[in-house]
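Why do we bother with holo predictions? Because pocket geometry can differ from the apo form. Keep that in mind while you read this record for iron/sulfur cluster.
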Amino acid sequence: MQKSEQTDALIAQCLDELKGIAHFRYTYKYSETAPEFLKSAPYAEYLKGSSGLFIAVMTLGAEADAKIKLYSRTDAAKAIVFDACASAYLEYLSDEYENGLGDNLSYRFCVGYGGSDIADLRYIFDIVKPEKIGVTLTSANYMLPSKSMAGIVAVGNGAEKSCKNCVIATHCEYLKRGEKCYR
Ligand code: SF4
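The structure, written out:
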């Protein structure tokens, strides 16, 4: 088997395992007005012209973390692939969930995008209270389980992903590496 075929097979295997063990949960609060912490850059630009917003937290559950931990002890290559697949799977399931939330929704703007401060997770946790779906925040603003995300979804403004108005565009580490913080 070629190297690329081996990698494809490993990805398929990891995705199959994830489908069997992931415990996806999503919780949100809808509001027609933005809370105070979303009234400055980069959120204000993202929300410009919106008629409302969802503030959301989503997770794959602790099971995915446990598998990553297990593979990191037994199969380092698989641990890396499994970790990446879990991140992509969480994005996919979240997109699917949001398709059912309503029409005219913009892309999900997660905390950390566009130079936003991960300390803002505290505000989101205060509003959404994702502990009810098993997601907690450490004192270092790290979400547990690790395969969790928090962000906002604007309604009605057709916001598109862009680096154009990002406050850290001039010194962005992603751009220096030829990458983006979003897909
Ligand atoms: S990739 Fe673009 S949007 Fe993301 S932090 Fe860098 S400049 Fe900002």
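The longest helix spans residues 76-99.
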